[in-house]
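#onboarding

Welcome to the new folks! Below is a worked example of what a typical request in this channel looks like: someone posts a single protein sequence, and someone else replies with the predicted structure as tokens. Don't worry about understanding the tokens yet, we'll cover that in week two.

Example request:
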Amino acid sequence: MREHGYHIGKMTQRKGLPTLFFIGILLIFSGCFAKKTGRFHETSFTAINNIAVNDSVADDSLTTVLIKPYRSAMETQMSEYIATIDSPFSNAFFVGNLGRLAADYMLLSANTISIKEFGVPCHFAISNNGGFRSGFYPGPVTMQQLFEVMPFENELVLVQLPGIYVDSLFQYIAQLQGTPASGFLMSYNKGATRKENHYRSVKLNAQPCNSIQDLLKPQYTQPMDTRRDYLFAVNSYMVVGGDGFTMLKHAKKIHYTGINLRTVLAQQLKAEYEANKFIDPRKQIRIYHEPQ
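Example response:
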């Protein structure tokens, strides 16, 4: 960028003397009011006792009345029942079934949106390992637990990416040794370091995922083609390069759905439980190490 062509030299010649005059006046006045202590600033400190805020401090009655309706509304929202699960969903990196569950629900929701907006199905979904902070344990699942599992305000995003960058995406996933994924199976070979890992094969689900049953009975038969574009679901943190997914910056199209991933998880958990009275444990490993 070019800067605006101001004549800095001429302005200095015309206004240099007045500027020096005012600076001199300021210095004189500042000298008159400054203490001759040989210091630029004198600071004094007053020690006071720390006051611990705990149960011994009584609630302020006015504040309690003010926040009561908000607290009641929040407690009602957090206690909302979502579903009941029979087996734990682990937050373990690379192999945790919680990531597979969330990716399944991302794909199912994204597919409905992609068909409506673009007329084509969504091919797969991925999330980042750091997007989850807890897990699910057998028993009822409430909205409070969803906030504990997914505390971030990440949004469901659809991305159209050229095949050459999808190739880079799968290579990066191999270096990570896995990430939450749905809609494909991937094998990779391990190198001496993670950066030397290479994906060996990728098989995409050949059928669109329009229902829970489609998710639970995939057909991993379609090979990846680097000559074509792929439409897939990610979160809003990843789409700007978060967690190293910088290849997503080469997207041809980015569609922000405006739907929070926590909402996606809540809706789809409820739908699967109402349909089957059971939440499938997602035991199948989708990204795995292929022994050489």
